Please model this.
Amino acid sequence: MTVRVLDAFAVLAFFHDEPGAQLVEEMILQAQDGKMELAICVVNLGEVYYSIARSSFREEAEDYIQQIQSMPIQIVDVDWELTRLAAQFKTSGNISYADCYAAALAKLQSGAVVTGDKEFKALEDDIKIVWLK
Model:
């Protein structure tokens, strides 16, 4: 089954109805129908939380997280295998450490990262990427 890993960029685009929101919504609907697996690393979920909390209110961030938890998105905890691969990605490119977790999760699950964050270009040779436009 197709696996797609959402990074914070994709989730925030969805909630703020930014470019790419429709594609993320379609993926959520496909996951609901059992046609696709969606995942997000807990580190990237933390990014979503702090991005919303610092630009708005913590209550709104809590609401967004509850909405994500109710969606057909697997929230993946961090273990050493994921952390080691994220650290390896960090050494090879100019990319945030949190984004390296999304990349590592996609690699470990034989999936693709869904993002519009141009930092991921540094990892295009290592992982599959579904670019939001």
Summary: The domain at 3-131 is CATH 3.40.50.1010 (Rossmann fold).
